[in-house]
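hi! just following up on the protien thing from before. the input was this:
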Amino acid sequence: MPAKAQRRSGPARAAAAPQRRFVEDYLAALLAQASHLISSEFHKVARQHGFSVSEWRVLASLAGGEAISIGRLAQIAVTKQPTVTRMLDRMSQKGHVERLPHDSDRRITLVRITEAGERTVGHLMELAREHEHRVLEPFGHESAEALKSTLRRMIELHEHAPSDEAEEEDEE
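and the predicted 3d structure came back as:
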């Protein structure tokens, strides 16, 4: 290619490929946008089945697992602890969850899902898995598993970092 053509093709290529905005290449913004879009799709399904977004998150977080502290549950469900505590009162009255004392620390209350709660959320979890499959299918199984593994590792590395409790949760 002649030198003149090379000089023209460089800027021509730059003009053809617009620069990305900061948030289009910033990890936290990309994760937030992807989470919002994907979650919003499924939140419609949860509401159609009579669950608020927060109820769905709490029951899904407890399903299939051991009792955990209310604070840890709030962290996993991405919901403020006072909101989780109020919600647990209602869910306990419905028989979906139960509170338990901590073995060695009376300041900590544990919570676990009941069999009735597992049955209540079971069908919705199946629908969530189907939704996840549709979201990840275009990337192939190997890439999807690599993405999930990377996200689990990110969470592990950052879950103990201080969070901004005063931050508003716009999605609910």
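The first strand starts at residue 68 and ends at 69.
The beta strands are 68-69, 97-101, 109-113.
cheers
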